[in-house]
Write a structure and sequence with these properties.
Strand content: under 5%
Order of helices and strands: HHH
Helix content: over 70%
Number of helices: 3
Number of domains: 1
Largest sheet: none
Shape: flat
Structural class: mainly alpha
Length: 94
């Protein structure tokens, strides 16, 4: 995954320097930021593993569960907005 981000980031950086895409540096910064997050996660995982042992492996599923709950709540909010719009449109026609 880092290889694809590294390629895309370098391509965007080249496009920016060559003048083909003036905003390419923003894309490159985005891709390199993703790579930085991967490096930070690997390094912090190694440090936490040495201090807390194998219990650290339970943090990854907990993080994924939190993200899943955030996504589900966002979808529910969007669904409720759609329902409210339908109700409002129905009253408007009365």
């Amino acid at each position: 995954m880092c290889t694809g981000n590294l390629r895309s980031g370098t391509d965007a950086l080249f496009q920016s320097f060559s003048g083909a895409d003036p905003d390419g540096w923003k894309k490159a910064l985005h891709y390199y930021g993703i790579i930085g997050c991967f490096i930070f996660g690997a390094a912090s995982g190694a440090v936490l593993l040495t201090h807390f042992g194998e219990i650290v492996f339970l943090l990854a599923p907990l993080g994924l569960i939190v993200v899943l709950l955030l996504i589900m709540s966002q979808r529910q909010r969007v669904h409720l907005r759609k329902i409210r719009r339908r109700i409002y449109r129905g009253r408007k026609h009365l």
